[in-house]
Amino acid sequence: MAGLGVALVAGAALIWAPSPAEPAPPPPTAAQAWPDAQKGTLPPDLPDGTAYDPGLFLDIRTSVGSAPTRDGKHIRLVIRGPGEAVRELRRLPLTQNPAFVSPSVAGDILVWAESTRAGLHLWTADLRAGRPARLLTGDIGDARLYQTQYDLVISPGRVNWVAAAPEAGTEIRSVALTGGPVAKRVVPGNWALTAWPWMVDGLADISGASRLRSLVTGEERAVPITRLSETACTPLWCRAVSLDDDGYPKIEVVRTDGGERRLVARETARTVISDVAVLGRFEVFARVTPASELTGRDELLVYDIETNRTVRVSPEAGNVRYRNGVLEWTTGNAESFLRHVLDLRSI
């Protein structure tokens, strides 16, 4: 009887033991969460067969990017429109080791930096008019370009950027969109531009951003510091990346006044773009999956701050980039890939 009692107790324990926690349901896909969002795909080559590398999308069908000439002697900056429409803006010989970098747009005005053996120069073009591109200035200083959408910031009538000061600190530089002399002023600290008219300090600090300052009013704001984290900020949100108690990465967003702290992701999550909480709403990140080691591509996700939910954009994505409200990524491999775009402004 004692053995039977033990068996009954053991059986009852099995019956009443809590079942293992069920895995969390997968996040909704972009098509499910945002059925009306504008999205599309882009072939990797121009109609003439040359490889095209977009630097900035105006919408899901129109972009600005670079491509070599068919003879391989020059690199071109072009506007690629719907269908086979291509307008050449600039052409530079490959012998000059050229690159078109940091494009920025406001309305119909496009600005960019050209890098050659002769140094950096700023150029501009009207996207609607057919007039040739114009040189703005070669007086760009020791420019600091951080691969964000704020490397060149267009303000009313001017384009702004930062450069390293000759001694210490940061030079705030700007030039009129019509050209002319470059305005310069030195401020102590390591500053970068963010959404106009703000700049953010602390880029050289191990913990990242520490304060914001308005270039118009001089107003200064301290930003919330998360212990043992790397922090990046815009005027609205900060992103803090740290390690949790188990040693896994943890991504959080918090308002610059310290309120509304949100956990975005943890464990195998990582940041994939420099920009923080784009459009004041979307934190873009990636998650390493079991297939990532084989494919070299991660799951691409977006945390929607407004709805407090995570959306899966692509199960496997590479070459993730963002500018001007448009998220871009590729699927496939180096030999055969397709470029995808999602206009976050349309959500």
The backbone outline, from C-alpha atoms, is globular
Structural class: mainly beta
Q: Provide a count of the helices.
A: 3
Mean pLDDT: 91
**How many strands?**
28
The separation of the N and C termini measures 68 Å
Radius of gyration (CA) equals: 24 Å
Poorly predicted runs are 1-17
Oligomer class: single chain
Q: How much helical structure, as a percent, in the residues?
A: under 10%
Keywords: Signal
Quick overview of this protein structure:
It is built from three helices and 28 strands. The protein is mainly beta and 347 residues long.
Description:
With 347 residues, the protein is mainly β. It has a domain at 272-347. It contains three helices and 28 strands. The strands form six sheets. Strands 1-28-27-26-25-24-23 form a seven-stranded antiparallel β-sheet. Strands 10, 11, 12, 13 and 14 form a five-stranded antiparallel β-sheet that branches. A four-stranded antiparallel β-sheet has the order 2-3-4-5, with no helix packed on it. A hairpin with a 4-residue loop joins β27 and β28. It is globular and about 60 Å long. It starts with a helix and ends with a strand. Mean pLDDT is 91; it is low at 1-17. Residues 20-48 are annotated as: Disordered. Residues 1-23 form the signal peptide. Residues 20-29 have a biased composition (Pro residues). Keywords: Signal.
Topology of this structure?
Blueprint: H1 2-16, H2 30-33, E1 38-42, E2 53-57, E3 63-68, E4 74-80, E5 86-93, E6 99-106, E7 109-116, E8 119-126, E9 134-137, E10 142-143, E11 153-155, E12 158-164, E13 170-176, E14 183-187, E15 191-193, E16 198-201, E17 211-214, E18 220-222, E19 230-233, E20 237-243, E21 249-255, E22 262-266, E23 269-271, E24 282-287, H3 292-295, E25 298-304, E26 309-323, E27 326-332, E28 337-343
Antiparallel strand pairs: 1-28, 2-3, 3-4, 4-5, 6-7, 7-8, 8-9, 10-12, 11-12, 12-13, 13-14, 15-16, 16-17, 17-18, 19-20, 20-21, 21-22, 23-24, 24-25, 25-26, 26-27, 27-28
